[in-house]
UniProtKB/TrEMBL annotation:
N-terminal signal peptide: 1-20
Domain Multidrug resistance protein MdtA-like alpha-helical hairpin: 95-159
Lineage: Bacteria, Pseudomonadati, Pseudomonadota, Alphaproteobacteria, Hyphomicrobiales
A single GO molecular function term of this UniProt record: efflux transmembrane transporter activity
Record's protein name: Efflux transporter periplasmic adaptor subunit
InterPro entries: MdtA-like_C (IPR058627), MdtA-like_HH (IPR058624), RND_pump_MFP (IPR006143)
Start and end residues of each Multidrug resistance protein MdtA-like C-terminal permuted SH3 domain: 284-342
Pfam families documented for this protein: HH_MFP_RND (PF25876), RND-MFP_C (PF25967)
Family that this chain belongs to: Belongs to the membrane fusion protein (MFP) (TC 8.A.1) family.
SUPFAM superfamilies: HlyD-like secretion proteins (SSF111369)
Amino acid sequence: MLALAAAATSLLLAACGREAETNAAPSPRPVRTATIEKRESSTPLTFTGRIEAEDEVSLAFRISGRVHENATKIGDRVKAGQVLARLESQNELNTLRQAQAALAAAQGQLTQARNHFDRQETLLAQGWTTRANYDAATQAQQTAQSQVDAAEAQLNSAHDLVSFTELMADAPGVITATGPGAGEVVQAGQMIAKIARQDGRDAVFDVPAQLIRSGSVDPKVTVNLVDDSKIAAQGRIREVAAQASPVTRTFEVKVGLTDPPVAMRLGATVVGRVETNAGPTIDIPSTALTKMNQQPAVWIVDPSTSTVSIRNVDVLRFDEAQATISQGLDTGEVIVTAGVQTLHPGQKVRVLGSTP
């Protein structure tokens, strides 16, 4: 009996020893890991805008008057030198006739003064007149010449006034806006027609201020038509408004297009796309994410002890395949990418392999 009791006691002690050994040294948990690397990334930005003329000019009469004819229509194509509108020109034509008559009278006075001067010059040479008469004839000729010059200048001004009653296109283009019609009285400088010249095309966008401050220097912009994305053109930023819109608080940005297709007509709606440098980023597999304190977190592996610890991270972007981390990880750190749901802080792990 004593021998049997001793054997039972030995077996019980052996079993307790094995259980204590098992509890003291559990087997490491198998996991897959990835090493953190930073890379330079670019973020695409898209904006909706419109096509405008690179050079648009408002045409107006140089003088005031009553519009006699204005046949311009929005969308009409015009040529350089084409008459767009006319003013009633009776007063200007009368002024022209008056200037012509004044010039004819001055030329007659000049002819008479020259003949008198020639006679006085001949008589003075022969000694039949006095120096005073000769000087008076000389002065009369100079006065008559000055009157002719003044009359010619007035005639040129009258011709200009008559020409100002016709409004002509200074370059080929398309009419984008029209002003007063026939019968209306207009002032000098009042817009009669607005022409988009055919020199170039701009894609115009309204852009927030923060994107202008953080944007790249001289970025290349890809512009596509909204209704047909296959129609595209390349361009670069040509002008940025100096002041934000008081309504939208955005800045107007004009992108000069290089060889835009014909389909990109004035007023067409387009989408502009530009790549901006987002700086160094960290991409990890989405399977590495877990939660701690209701915030995204990852498990960090300590290579020296093969144990894990959990750490919160800031997620910039997330999809089914990968997540972009903005803060919380450094280059060279090892994270767990598979088996994250069964870990606890300080647990030993055994690396099965690395996730690419």
